[in-house]
Write a structure and sequence with these properties.
The complex is a heterodimer. By secondary structure, chain A is of the alpha+beta class. Chain A contains 14 helices and 28 strands. Chain A has 3 domains: about 110 residues, Aldehyde Oxidoreductase, domain 4, CATH 3.30.365; about 190 residues, Alpha-Beta Complex (Aldehyde Oxidoreductase, domain 3), CATH 3.90.1170; about 350 residues, Aldehyde Oxidoreductase, domain 4, CATH 3.30.365.10. A 7-stranded mixed beta sheet of chain A has the order 3-5-1-14-11-12-13. The N and C termini of chain A lie far apart (about 55 Å). Chain B is α+β, with helices and mostly antiparallel strands. The chains are: A alpha+beta, B alpha+beta. The interface between A and B is large, with 65 and 58 residues. The complex binds FE2/S2 (inorganic) cluster (2 copies). Chain B: InterPro entries: 2Fe-2S-bd, 2Fe-2S-bd_dom_sf, 2Fe-2S_ferredoxin-like_sf, 2Fe-2S_ferredoxin-type, 2Fe2S_fd_BS, Aldehyde_Oxdr_Iron-Sulfur, Beta-grasp_dom_sf.
């Protein structure tokens, strides 16, 4: 167990420190960084899904007044390295090959964005078209098992004999569930401003991690990491897609090399984001549950088929949620991939857990119905004593409490389980529940410094970022408690690789990683300079060890409840109420934390009812590649969404006692809605999104 | 083709040359350095670029700058009076009606414009009684604000902020 810091500022609902700048719009995002005399970039994209560029004619584009140059694979600066592995996504303008539709095959550099865009349209390309394949199905003969799935999880696991257990089980639920291709769509599109001068490369980037951008890009450009600076003081959301640099970063870096030091600005358009910044793979999931008549699971099978791109393997860890959620003596999980000619998939909020929990938690609802049991009670009955596959004890597992507290607040006791039994004013009413989980992830290698300034304030520096998560505020609170001073005496500096090494804002582990390093730095500072430092005193520190982490299984848990109304004639689905109850360790800032939970639950609601990217198999592109046709929840869709949490701290996790909160809110949310729709209508929809047409058959 | 136009932005007259293809949004952000309105889609689909244009809320990505010579534009920055925030902005802070903040200036301008529309008696899709003045309940706020997307999902807090700011 690590020694925890005393909570004085932590736990207080401080207003966002960056809030004032944001409500007036003065907080500068990447594209808004003021640079001198910039040039504008507009990418040229491939309009075939697979093949080769035979000829590319840039003459018309280049003759347009205001165009500085057009870069293609024929004349772009060369990247360093072999362009293998994950770098294949970043291997931009280095060859004539096209691996997916929308791939960047050129870029116009021009005096204004209007000219650049016009010129990009004038670039003429002749292709040699090769047959492509973007269609995922569970019966493909080329499905394969990756070596590992995302976050380093095993691809398959087996415990006991599921075939025998399923054959013997008095109650069996065995179905296929599907989730579609989904897109993060942060409101701030990915954007970067790059300056290449004698000092190296500076990038103002919309990213979840300044250091990860530097680590990935420096070797590609043949630069020492010390000669790459990445700056991101404010980021307009990411939800995973900004967790690593993508092709546009490389495109900007290439272009910046040919402008004689003039800065270049590249804003990926909303439409382009559907090709080049990642997406969540579609999933086809078989869940097989075997149970006794009292609901106790004897077998749990979760087999997943999903896609990856042919050039870079990204294997979403969709079935891992089924490895630890419920007790069952016989269990099996599988991940199988089809490598297709699709854009490169990547992280989207709660990768693995979000689609996986949809399938598992709908299946559990089906089991509750099959056993004639209350779905809250069914889940409590299947609570494991220890992590069922690893055998390790949980550092804390209060899921039953979340379920009971949620049931109490939601008014669950009075629920009549009969489906399709509540018709009021033309609307069918129903309620649903699902469990939530997200692992505690601790990223290593973080450092921070503390400096005592002449103004009597402590400056605390670390290359963390705030993507809307509240880092500016919550990390200041942690720093204040680590130094045992009021928050007013702390001045936080983040979002710059000139600051010490920091992990990406991802895996709900940003604040854990950065906060731990800040605690380490504060302790080093106090050890060296005591309580009465002089101006200029400075100390650097790293995160203290958490030896307990090895011995425990650490997760956050939750329970989600949803009330839906379904129009009996049109199938329109409304969600008047959602409630989440979570247990996440300590909550550093209740105000920003509640927003994050509610925001993630809202994304879950959006996943349940709206989100679906439609790939056209003939052309290999996402047809609905904008916000008018790729629907996300808006004001009118979101009514009473609320989140609460159980009071606790998890001293085994880190010196703040926190486990992370950014993703758990989306996990199980879509299942709660789907289960409520079943309760309302009697129709079980097993493929997302739940659109009205699926309710009539 | 370029054209010279004048815009009154947050109380200040500015003269600028714009490409006739330049949107009002790009004119503000790229020519004048006024970056309070944000570009979330450039297609009128998200509301991030909302300002008050001649007193009414408008998405500036769908407006050509050259067509608005002489226009009066108020951005979220201009709604604040120096250090003093507009009551709606103050309420956004208090209710935590934002996370990443990227949709926020658009939400704020849209809310301020919307409140004026309600005051002027304009009905919405969900207004039941078309004869009387519309009553600003949460359903009305949500309906009228639905052109402003927030991927962070700050909607419930935004609605609470608008309710508070409207008082
Ligand atoms: S940027 Fe104008 S509506 Fe989206
Ligand atoms: S606050 Fe991030 S999109 Fe609204």
């Amino acid at each position: 167990m690590t020694e925890t810091i005393r909570a004085r500022a932590m736990g207080r609902p401080l207003e966002r420190l960056d809030g004032r700048d944001k409500v007036v719009g003065q907080a500068p995002y990447a594209y808004e960084q003021q640079v001198t005399d910039p040039l504008y970039l507009h990418p040229v994209q491939a309009v075939i899904a697979r093949g080769r560029i035979n000829a590319i004619d840039t003459a018309d584009a280049e003759s347009l007044p205001g165009v500085v140059t057009v870069l293609t694979h024929l004349n772009a600066p060369r990247l360093t390295g072999d362009g293998d592995g994950d770098d294949r996504e970043l291997w931009v303008l280095q060859s004539d090959e096209v691996h997916f539709r929308g791939q960047f095959i050129g870029v116009v550099v021009a005096e204004t964005s209007e000219i650049a865009r016009h010129a990009a349209d004038l670039v003429r390309v002749e292709y040699e078209r090769w047959p492509h394949d973007v269609e995922l199905s569970a019966d493909r003969d080329d499905l394969y098992a990756p070596d590992k799935v995302n976050a380093g999880h095993d691809t398959d696991t087996d415990v006991g004999d599921v075939a025998a257990a399923l054959a013997d089980a008095p109650v069996v639920v065995d179905h296929t569930y599907r989730t579609p291709m989904e897109y993060n769509n942060p409101m701030e599109p990915h954007a970067t401003v790059a300056v290449w001068d004698a000092g190296g490369l500076t990038m103002y980037d919309s990213t979840q991690g300044v250091h990860v951008v530097r680590q990935r890009l420096a070797p590609l450009f043949g630069l020492d990491p010390g000669h790459v600076r990445v700056v991101a003081p404010h980021v307009g959301g990411g939800f995973g897609s900004k967790g690593a640099p993508h092709a546009h970063n490389v495109l900007a870096g290439l272009a910046a090399q040919v402008t004689g030091g003039r800065p270049v600005k590249l804003a990926v358009t909303r439409q382009q984001m559907f090709s080049v910044v990642g997406h969540r793979t579609p999933t086809i999931q078989r869940i097989g549950l075997g149970a006794e008549t009292d609901g106790r699971l004897t077998a749990l099978v979760h087999e997943v088929v999903e896609h990856t791109s042919r050039i870079v393997e990204y294997a979403e860890q969709t079935a891992v949620v089924s490895r630890m959620m419920y007790a069952a003596p016989n269990r099996r999980t599988r991940h199988r991939l089809a490598a297709l000619d699709v854009p490169v998939p990547f992280w989207m909020r709660a990768p693995g857990e979000a689609p996986g929990a949809f399938a598992l938690e709908v299946a559990m609802d089906e089991l509750a119905v099959a056993c004639g049991l209350d779905p809250v009670e069914l889940r409590i009955r299947n609570e494991p004593d220890v992590d069922p596959e690893s055998g390790r004890p949980f550092s804390g597992r209060r899921m039953s409490e979340c379920l009971r507290e949620g049931a109490r607040r939601f008014g669950w006791e009075s629920r009549d389980p009969t489906p399709a039994a509540r018709l009021r004013d033309g609307w069918l009413e129903g309620t649903g529940v699902a469990a939530s989980v997200y692992p505690r992830i601790m990223q290593t290698g973080n450092r921070a410094w503390v400096r005592y300034g002449p103004d009597g304030r402590y400056e605390v520096g670390i290359g963390a970022v705030d993507i809307g998560t509240g880092t500016w505020t919550a990390l200041t609170q942690i720093a204040a408690d680590a130094l045992e001073v009021p928050v007013e005496e702390v001045r936080l500096r983040i979002g710059d690789t000139d600051l010490p090494e920091a992990a990406v804002a991802g895996g709900s582990g940003g604040l854990s990683a950065w906060g731990s390093a800040v605690v380490g730095a504060a302790r080093a500072f106090r050890e060296k300079f005591g309580r009465h430092p002089s101006a200029g005193d400075e100390a650097t520190g790293t995160a203290p060890e958490s030896p307990a982490a090895e011995d425990f299984s650490m997760y956050s848990f939750g329970a989600q409840f949803a009330h839906v109304r379904v129009h009996a004639d049109t199938g329109e689905i409304r969600v008047p109420r959602m409630l989440g109850v979570f247990t996440v360790g300590r909550v550093v800032n209740p105000r920003t934390a509640r927003s994050q939970f509610v925001g993630a639950m809202t994304m879950g609601l959006s996943m349940a009812l709206h989100e679906e990217a439609v790939l056209d198999p003939r052309f290999g592109h996402v047809v609905n590649h904008d916000l008018a046709t790729y629907h996300i929840a808006t004001h009118a869709d979101v009514q009473d969404v609320d989140a609460i949490w159980l009071d606790e701290e998890d001293p085994r996790s880190n010196p703040m006692g926190i486990r992370g909160i950014g993703e758990i809110g989306i996990v199980g949310a879509a299942a709660a809605v789907a289960n409520a729709v079943h309760h309302a209508t009697g129709v079980r929809v097993r493929d997302l999104p739940i659109t009205p047409d699926k309710l009539f058959h | 083709m370029d054209a010279s136009i004048r815009l009154r932005v947050d109380g200040q007259w500015r003269t600028l040359d714009v490409d006739t293809r330049t949107t009002l949004l790009d004119a503000l952000r790229e020519r004048l350095g006024v970056t309070s309105p944000k570009k979330g889609c450039d297609h009128g689909q998200c509301g991030s670029c909302t300002v008050l244009l001649d007193g009414r809320r408008a998405v500036t990505c769908l407006a050509l700058a050259v067509a608005h010579d002489g226009a009066e534009i108020v951005t979220a920055e201009g709604l604040a009076d120096g250090e003093d925030l507009h009551p709606v902005q103050r309420a956004f802070l208090e209710q935590d009606g934002l996370q990443c903040g990227y949709c926020t200036p658009g939400q704020v301008c849209s809310a301020v414009g919307m409140l004026e529309e309600v005051k002027a008696g304009w009905p919405s899709q969900v207004t039941e009684d078309l004869a009387g003045p519309p009553e600003l309940d949460d359903e009305e706020i949500r309906e009228r604000m639905s052109g402003n997307l927030c991927r962070c999902g700050a909607y419930p807090n935004i609605v609470a902020a608008i309710r508070q700011g409207a008082r």
